[in-house]
Amino acid sequence: MSDIQRVGVVGSGLMGSGIAEVSARAGLDVIVAEVNASAAEAAQGRIASSLARGVKAGKLSEADRDAALGRIRFTTDIGEFADRQFVVEAVAENEQVKTEVFATLDKVVKDEDAIFASNTSSIPIMKLGMATGRPEQVIGVHFFNPVPVLKLVEIVPSLLTGSTTQVRAEAFVRATLGKEVIRSQDRAGFVVNALLIPYLLSAIRMLESGFASADDIDNGMVLGCAHPMGPLRLTDLIGLDTTKAIAESMYDEFKEPLYSPPPLLLRMVDAGLLGKKSGRGFHNYAK
Ligand SMILES: CC(=O)CC(=O)SCCNC(=O)CCNC(=O)[C@H](O)C(C)(C)COP(=O)(O)OP(=O)(O)OC[C@H]1O[C@@H](n2cnc3c(N)ncnc32)[C@H](O)[C@@H]1OP(=O)(O)O
């Protein structure tokens, strides 16, 4: 069993709120840092409705739901992370924003053995580690959306991540959070997105070129390949802005045309059509 009891989550968008939820459900004391009260309120609502869904599905009792909610505290002051043993950064997929978060965490977290994890999908862990004075304690711990449902976590050590950090992070993810682990080298996209993103971009190019409709592309993969959702609906779930940011990081790293975001994706992001979270992407979602 892991020794980690006190968790901090920075950012509470789709991924941050999911990570906070699974941590609280695992019995941990969780503090979530957000930039303002309205973002914190939105995350609280997301976590409450996900837990309610879990209760309805018979995955947890009402008492467990209430206990989990009681273990999550929101703050706008990251200084409250001083005693955290495991911090997960889950802010927007932007290298500058993330490196600033890591530099701040390095200053405020006093636990000498604390692990600094990033939920990045595509930004080098090495760059995040170098923003701190303790790169041996920085590691990629990449969850999948919806976090309470999907079992996988990718563990990504950088060239400087210590073996103790990796062993402790894996034990925590497996034994405490109950997830399955795969390991990847510190390369943009890691294992899953290196395979997934070219597939999603191909579906967008297919739609863009008039090859097939959004419904037919999605139904093709759901009914023909038994995927739980088609590529365009999955892009809507991930968020078009996040998909674009991941694709750009991968393109920056490998300069392979297959990672280059197609113009339709860029224009939709410009238009604020970000997918499920904004109510419209390749499909429409009732708000
Ligand atoms: C971009 C990145 O870097 C990384 C990423 O995240 S990539 C994105 C990865 N995500 C995917 O590929 C998602 C693919 N889609 C799916 O898996 C499914 O469509 C979905 C899980 C999103 C929805 O599936 P669904 O069948 O319509 O939903 P639903 O039946 O309500 O839930 C599926 C299961 O989760 C459970 N569940 C749902 N919400 C839950 C919650 N909040 N807590 C616990 N369990 C929950 C349900 O009870 C159900 O369990 P059973 O199979 O045991 O009955």
TrEMBL record:
- A Pfam family of the record is 3HCDH
Pathway listed: Lipid metabolism; butanoate metabolism
Keywords for the protein's UniProt record, in alphabetical order? Oxidoreductase
Q: What is this protein called?
A: 3-hydroxybutyryl-CoA dehydrogenase
Bilayer-spanning residue ranges? none
**In what residue span(s) does the 3-hydroxyacyl-CoA dehydrogenase C-terminal domain sit?**
189-285
**Hey, which family's this protein in?**
Belongs to the 3-hydroxyacyl-CoA dehydrogenase family.
- Gene3D superfamilies the UniProt entry points to: N-(1-d-carboxylethyl)-l-norvaline Dehydrogenase, domain 2 (1.10.1040.10), NAD(P)-binding Rossmann-like Domain (3.40.50.720)
Presence of the UniProt keyword Oxidoreductase in the record:
yes
Q: Which NCBIfam families match?
A: PRK07819.1
- Recorded superkingdom: Bacteria
Give the taxonomic lineage as stored in the record: Bacteria, Bacillati, Actinomycetota, Actinomycetes, Pseudonocardiales
Q: Where is the 3-hydroxyacyl-CoA dehydrogenase NAD binding domain?
A: 7-186
SUPFAM superfamilies for this protein: 6-phosphogluconate dehydrogenase C-terminal domain-like, NAD(P)-binding Rossmann-fold domains
